[in-house]
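Incident log, structure service

09:12 report received: a user says their structure output differs between two submissions of the same chain.
09:20 pulled the input from the user's history:
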Amino acid sequence: MATTTTAVDSRNAAGSLYVYGLTWAGRGSACGRGIGDARVELLEHGELAAIVSSVGGSALRAKRRDLLRHSDVLQHAFAQAPVLPLRFGTVLGSSDAVVDDLLAARYEELVSLLQQFEGTSELRLRATFVEQAVLAEIVRDDKHVARLRDVTRTASDADPRRIQLGEAVAGALTARRAAAADEIVQSLAKHALDLRSEEPRDALEVVRASFLVGERKVRELERAAEALAARHKRRITFDLVGPMPPHSFVALTPPGSR
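09:34 re-ran on a clean worker, output below:
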């Protein structure tokens, strides 16, 4: 194993280090400023490098500015080499702890992970129904819903048929969401190496998913998403973000993090 080297001022410098992620040593440069406007540096050990910056003793909070800094630092590193991202708020007590307890202690595992994710990236998709459009579809296509809507136009709030209408609309919306989600995921998954799907966060959300994609397939998946957006124009909105480091596919929990 190669000798430990470091771009940090001193291995024994006082103070904790915020760890953004891991990358290959010698394959890139650190990105300007990170959490708390601290200078971002690389702490190297053998083939590995931890992307770090100094932090004070106070507890970190998930402020929007710091979350964006965390993401920006990783994105800059990812533009130059593969990156294994760590979760926001990962702090180790010293540069010794980063090297000894993370890079050295898990060296073979981390090298293997970097090799595994070499040449891949994550693309995240959020697809959401346009409320007025999908509700108009339901009324148009479901005679039961249309009838209940008509008979409850002037009904009181206590009329039980209003509850029936709400339940009928919810059921129809759930069915449409499932059908649309299947179409979208199946269309995109064939361009991906892996995927992670999350449960919808509200009734109108159709898909919230991340796709692990080889670099040669990124444009193919983007074109497939564009085709879906055109097919569902004014019915479903599509928000595709990436390429980015594989946040959804790597779960590193280093010892001593807080």
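09:41 both user submissions now match this output. Likely a transient worker issue. Closing.
09:42 reviewer note: Residues 4-118 form one domain. The chain has seven helices and ten strands.
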